[in-house]
């Protein structure tokens, strides 16, 4: 990658850079998916290569697995790991209770399995992801391809009785074809505007036949590390509120920025 990074990319980078301070020798680490998580994987790779950090990574997508291997992180499956010490991942939205919408990158199913099987989940995000109420970002719902139109109709009917502003569910596309997840499923993006009761929404969606998982991550995240374009980093802990604010120097290292994907 050449040239100056945008303020959003700098914000993502500094959040990612700070998050790897939580990683210790011997840990089994869940590796999220998306552009912010990709920065984190690269920062971890640097620690593995240059500082001899010994970790095993459990990727939450084939994309992340490929990147982790490329940067020198030992990759194991979640079943090999059995349980994880820490998962670090991005998010599309987070609220004041550190509840999240995830799945903008289409990896919500593996991401939720990996985060749920971890002692701790840290989310890394730029400040633009903070919201008062979840729902402005379309809520991704992973559905099986069989009968997806029927599932969509049932979801839209269900939404009539829910506290939301919008009710449209669109099939995520990849060019002219439906987007297909790592598990071979489709994604419906629910344009809700505002979700009045995200706990209830997460529960009722998952009770519907055809729905595999939804992108609401309720009571899973412990810490959000928020990056700003000027290098400021805030750390919000679910138990302690904002615990730390400082600034990271932004240094474009050739190793980290040369061939970044996403
Ligand atoms: O949930 C995700 C992928 O399924 C991502 O974490 C989320 O979409 C944020 O992505 P980015 O860091 O690129 O903004």
Protein model, in words:
With 262 residues, the protein is of the alpha/beta class. It folds into two domains: 7-130 and 219-257, Rossmann fold, CATH 3.40.50.1360; 139-215, 2-Layer Sandwich (Alpha-Beta Plaits), CATH 3.30.70. It is built from eight helices and 17 strands. It has helices at 7-19, 35-51, 62-70, 78-81, 108-116, 148-159, 198-206, 254-257; strands at residues 28-31, 56-59, 74-75, 86-89, 93-94, 100-101, 121-126, 139-143, 168-171, 173-174, 177-178, 186-191, 211-214, 216-217, 223-227, 232-237, 241-247. The protein has an eight-stranded mixed β-sheet, with helices on both faces. A hairpin with a 2-residue loop joins β10 (173-174) and β11 (177-178). Ribulose-5-phosphate binds next to α2 and α5.
What are the salient characteristics of this protein?
Alpha-Beta Plaits; alpha/beta; 17 strands; 26% strand; Rossmann fold; single chain; 8 helices; 2 domains; Ribose-5-phosphate isomerase A; globular; 262 residues; binds ribulose-5-phosphate; four-stranded antiparallel sheet
């Amino acid at each position: 990658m050449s040239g100056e990074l945008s303020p959003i990319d700098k914000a993502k980078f500094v959040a990612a850079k700070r998050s790897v301070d939580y990683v210790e020798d011997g840990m089994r680490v869940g590796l999220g998916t998306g552009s912010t998580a990709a920065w984190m994987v690269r920062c971890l790779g640097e620690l593995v290569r240059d500082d001899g950090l010994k970790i095993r990574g459990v990727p939450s997508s084939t994309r992340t697995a490929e990147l982790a291997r490329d940067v020198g992180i030992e990759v194991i499956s979640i079943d090999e790991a059995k349980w994880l010490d820490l998962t670090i991942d991005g998010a599309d939205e987070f609220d004041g209770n550190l509840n999240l919408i995830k799945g903008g990158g289409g990896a919500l199913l593996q991401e939720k399995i990996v985060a749920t099987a971890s002692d701790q989940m840290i989310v890394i995000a730029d400040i633009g992801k903070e919201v008062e109420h979840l729902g402005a970002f379309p809520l991704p719902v992973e559905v099986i391809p069989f009968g997806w139109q029927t599932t969509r109709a049932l979801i839209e009917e269900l939404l009539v009785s829910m506290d939301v502003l919008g009710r449209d569910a669109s099939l995520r596309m990849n060019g002219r074809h439906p987007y297909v997840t790592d598990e071979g499923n489709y994604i419906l993006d629910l344009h809700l505007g505002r979700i009045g009761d995200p706990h209830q929404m997460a529960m009722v969606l998952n009770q519907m036949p055809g729905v595999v998982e939804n992108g609401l991550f309720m009571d899973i995240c412990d810490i959000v590390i928020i990056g700003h374009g000027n290098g400021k980093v805030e750390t919000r802990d679910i138990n302690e509120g904002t615990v730390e604010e400082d600034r990271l120097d932004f240094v474009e290292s050739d190793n980290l920025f040369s061939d970044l994907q996403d």
